[in-house]
Design brief:
It comes from Streptomyces bungoensis. It holds the Pfam family PP-binding. This is Curamycin polyketide synthase. Residues 3-84 form the Carrier domain. By secondary structure, the protein is mainly alpha-helical. It is built from five helices and no strands. The longest helix has 15 residues, at 41-55. The chain has one domain (6-83): Non-ribosomal Peptide Synthetase Peptidyl Carrier Protein, Chain A. 62% of the residues lie in helices and 0% in strands. The chain is globular, with a radius of gyration of 11 Å.
């Protein structure tokens, strides 16, 4: 199963949370908090929901508690790899 890329996360942030962030920004500053980027807990929940729909895999409960894009990608990609 493919891993979630920063490009995909950036697209999901725009679609599910209405927040526009460039993939470059996510790559250069992966530890910038979602709160700083403008993604609240509801937005993160939306991102998790989109991923579950796209990949047909339940995401870990902790996914919606991630504080940074890097933390989120690590958790989600570990889950996807385990389910592959």
């Amino acid at each position: 199963m493919p891993q979630i890329t920063v490009e995909e996360l950036a697209a999901l942030m725009k679609k599910a949370a209405g927040v526009t962030v460039s993939p470059q920004q996510l790559q250069e500053k992966p530890d910038t908090g979602f709160d700083v980027l403008g993604v609240d807990s509801l937005g993160l929940l939306g991102i998790v929901g989109e991923l579950e729909n796209t990949h047909g895999t339940p995401m870990p409960v902790d996914a919606e508690r991630c504080r940074t894009p890097q933390q989120f990608l690590n958790l989600v990609n570990t889950t996807l790899m385990a389910g592959a």
